[in-house]
Write a structure and sequence with these properties.
The chain is mainly alpha-helical. It has helices at 10-22, 28-48, 54-63, 71-94, 101-118, 122-155, 160-167, 172-185, 194-220, 222-229. Helix 1 packs across helix 2 (28-48), helix 5 crosses helix 9 and helix 6 packs parallel to helix 9 (194-220).
């Protein structure tokens, strides 16, 4: 009777998870993916030579990743999920530029443009608007970040795509200063050029929509998006 090939035990699988963490893989989904890959590779070694120890088999497999270890795989996974996040965000964003929501978007741009060009203090309105948007965005970004940090601490797991969802609002700190500087130049003045006012109104409304998508819409549906990527997320 042929002896059954040796299989990875529960303790050995836990050791693989620990091994990935020791090599700077901080996200649970990547740990699980790498641990599963290593387990399959080690079992393949045991099929050829059942006498190879777990530690030696693991060391052999890890050496196949090269001098950078798991770094390349982690970076590729991050790039893949970043593209996925951008597709989701773009899908929600473009809803506001297709019927029927495009009518609301155009109305908001038109109303904001009128305020900028018709009032003598249009520049002040622009700057105050940016400050208010920045404050609201900062509030939501910090709230989402704290919520995610507490959740990860309670569950003891960090998921890469979840981290992207709840940290995406930090784009506020990249784009908002540019809008603020532009509005500061116009502080206390009117928008003498209607096209400049229209461009600013379009940029401001578009950025407001983007912030809504990243800070409210996507986080509100985070569970749905995460379960599509990680079936096991449903039971965590």
């Amino acid at each position: 009777m042929q002896k059954q090939p040796r299989k990875i035990s529960a303790d050995e699988m836990e050791a693989l998870f620990t091994f990935t963490r020791q090599h700077y893989v901080e996200f649970y989904d990547l740990q699980a993916e790498l641990a599963d890959h290593l387990a399959n590779a080690i079992e393949a070694q045991w099929e050829a030579d059942p006498n190879v120890s777990f530690s030696i088999a693991l060391d052999r497999e890890f050496k196949k990743f090269g001098i950078f270890g798991f770094t390349d795989i982690v970076e590729r996974r991050k790039a893949h999920l970043s593209k996925r996040y951008r597709r989701i965000a773009w899908g929600y964003f473009k809803e506001f530029f297709t019927l029927p929501k495009v009518m609301l978007t155009l109305a908001l741009i038109g109303l904001y443009w009128l305020l900028l060009v018709k009032l003598s203090y249009g520049g002040t309105i622009a700057m105050v608007s940016v400050i208010i948007l920045s404050a609201v965005s900062l509030y939501y970004a910090i709230r989402q970040n704290r919520f995610h940090a507490r959740k990860a601490k309670i569950e003891g797991k960090r998921w890469l795509f979840e981290e992207m969802i709840f940290n995406a609002g930090m784009i506020t700190f990249i784009i908002t200063p540019q809008l603020l500087l532009r509005s500061w130049d116009l502080f206390g003045t009117a928008f003498s050029n209607q096209w400049t006012a229209l461009a600013f109104a379009s940029a401001f409304v578009s950025f407001t929509i983007l912030q809504y998508v990243m800070l409210i819409r996507i986080p509100k549906q985070a569970q749905e998006h995460l379960e599509k990527i990680y079936p096991e997320y449903r039971v965590t």
